From TrEMBL:
Compartment(s): Cell membrane
Annotated source species: Candidatus Rhodobacter oscarellae
Keyword Hydrolase: no
Record's protein name: Dipeptide transport system permease protein DppC
Family assignment from sequence similarity: Belongs to the binding-protein-dependent transport system permease family.
Keyword Iron attributed: no
InterPro entries membership: BP-dependent_transpt_permease (IPR050366), MetI-like (IPR000515), MetI-like_sf (IPR035906), OppC_N (IPR025966)
Membrane topology of this protein: Multi-pass membrane protein
PANTHER family per record: ABC TRANSPORTER PERMEASE PROTEIN, OLIGOPEPTIDE TRANSPORT SYSTEM PERMEASE PROTEIN APPC
Superkingdom field: Bacteria
One Pfam family hit: OppC_N
Length: 302
């Protein structure tokens, strides 16, 4: 019988893990919702009409909109109701998936790139280790959401400022992870042999050290995505994220709806449920990847 390649064995293990299958399926569906938002959404998420304000879910009516050609009536069905400006909550929730996923993926990519570079330097060069880690410890001592609020307040409101604000508290966690891996690997015989053979430091790090960080960083990346989505929602809820009149996000949808929560709870309920399902799905995917890719957890489950 032909032996399976390591990639095939890993893929088979992933496909057999319930958390990976369920979490990955849900994440895939949410990504499809974001990609096909123009098709799934009923109308423009920023289109408003005072004649259809605060309508309940399932309401069918006509939006009275003023255009260059004059007053136009648009038939619409509010599947999730309408907000205080008459905008379709369903369309805003569907389009809101785009910002949440873009922010989550961008934060994970930037945090892992910066954290990996800094962690490799801190773990390999002992003279720089103490200085770098004291800075990282100082950043980690501040709660992530408070640090994000402090950073975003320096910049103008927008998606770029939100991404920068979330990256700052996430980088130290990646640095500590990569540093711990480098510290355990640099004493290995094959690394010492490469050093004795005169291998240059950049080549040594890329060829012998960096490959050992890939699996842990993939797992860490999923948790960063989930954390970034939550922090982005909090910032937008507080009015510090993407302006609600420009692009809908799950956070600013709930932020606008909090004024009418007691009489119209559906405005908070629907985006809140989608946000919770998304974070749960990403965390389930991360747990499954950790159990499969991390040898320590794999041995515990054996």
């Amino acid at each position: 019988m032909r032996a399976q390649s390591p990639f095939a064995r890993t893929l088979r293990s992933l496909m057999g893990h319930p958390s990976v299958v369920i979490g990955g399926t849900l994440v895939g569906l949410i990504c499809l919702m974001a990609v096909f938002a123009p098709i799934l959404g009923t109308i423009d998420p920023n289109l408003n009409s005072t004649s259809t304000r605060l309508k309940p879910p399932g309401f069918e009516g006509e939006m009275k909109v003023y255009t260059d050609e004059g007053r136009v009536k648009i038939p619409v069905t509010y599947r999730m109701g309408s907000d205080n400006l008459g905008r379709d909550v369903y369309s805003r929730v569907v389009y809101g998936a785009r910002i949440s996923l873009v922010v989550g993926i961008a934060v994970a990519a930037i945090s892992i790139s910066l954290g990996m570079f800094i962690g490799l330097i801190a773990g390999y060069f002992r003279l720089l280790d103490s200085v770098i880690m004291r800075i990282m410890d100082g950043l980690m001592a501040i709660p992530a959401i408070l640090l994000a609020i402090a950073v975003v307040s320096v910049f103008n409101a927008g998606m770029l400022s939100v991404i920068i604000a979330i990256v700052v508290p996430e980088v130290p966690r990646v640095v500590r992870l990569v540093r711990s891996i480098v510290l355990s690997i640099r004493e290995e015989p094959y690394v010492e042999a490469a050093i004795t053979a005169g291998t240059r430091v950049p080549t040594l790090l890329v060829r012998h050290v960096l490959p050992n960080t890939v699996a842990p960083l993939i797992v860490q990346g999923t948790f960063i995505v989930a954390s970034a989505i939550i922090i982005e929602a909090i910032l937008s809820f507080l009015g510090l994220g993407v302006p609600p009149d420009e692009v809908p996000t799950w956070g600013n949808i709930m932020g606008i709806a909090r004024e009418n929560f007691q009489l119209h709870p559906y405005q908070v309920f629907f985006p809140g449920v989608i946000l919770a399902v998304t974070v749960l799905a990403v965390n389930m995917l991360g747990d499954g990847l950790r159990d499969t890719l991390d040898p320590r957890f794999a041995k515990r489950g054996a």
